[in-house]
Amino acid sequence: MEKDKIIAKIDEMQLSWYNSYYWKYQYQLAEDYIIPYFKSFGIEIKDKSICEIGSAEGGVLFAFACKNANYCLATDIAENRLNAGDQIAKEFNLQIEFQKHNILSDPIPEEWKEKFDIILLRDVIEHLDNPLHALEQIHFMLRNGGILYLTFPPYFSPFGGHQHLLGTFLGKFPFLHWLPKPVFDLLIKNGRPADKEEVRRLKSFRLTVKKFLDTVQKTTFTIIDEQFYIIRPVYKYKFGLNSLKLPKLLRNNFLKEIISSEASYLLKK
Fold this sequence. Notes:
Layout: H1 3-12, H2 17-40, E1 49-53, H3 59-66, E2 71-76, H4 79-91, E3 96-100, E4 116-122, H5 131-141, E5 142-152, H6 181-187, H7 193-205, H8 209-216, E6 222-231, H9 235-239, E7 244-245, H10 253-259, E8 262-268
């Protein structure tokens, strides 16, 4: 089915605006960017086993399933989002398995070990208090030669503190998370309680590119590719902005931490 027809059918389903909005941009991101990016490295989708950790509604995996992936597993800790994704997959008769699972605290089921050719971890690792353990868990799940695709906003980038989640006027300001903690806590006091807690956690984690690379060095993963974006690809669906890569001349350690709204990596087991 053509992309526009798929989107139109989603609009006809009785989903919440939240689930519909996020599913549609996940699906379009995979169709327009992630899958072509994989193809540029000769990474095939057909007949592969693929998992997305932190999949939410599973729109990305939907696109992979449409490209004849052999097996697709969507995991997340948000059961309501998994349920919405499962409803959509069944509506289109696509075989995608949805499982509630915490990559840090839950054991890896035996049937998942060395099961996957490709694992996706998009905008998740910056939320984890033990990214090394997450990578070790993923290592168990990948087959030898398997690929991990990973993205995150560097902490010191304009919205690396995720202050936009607060839904407040001040949350719209870039670099708010640079402020000292007492001032920061005062400015976010009117945000939604769960989101206030999350931005506080992110301020304590502060996942930078350097910290991420230091973590990868403690594993047996090999970095195949890295990309940095001033305007990240997903902003096309959120704000109508075309993606813009950080020029190589600006990729020094200081600037890529501050200017990049997204760091993305291909890692190989």
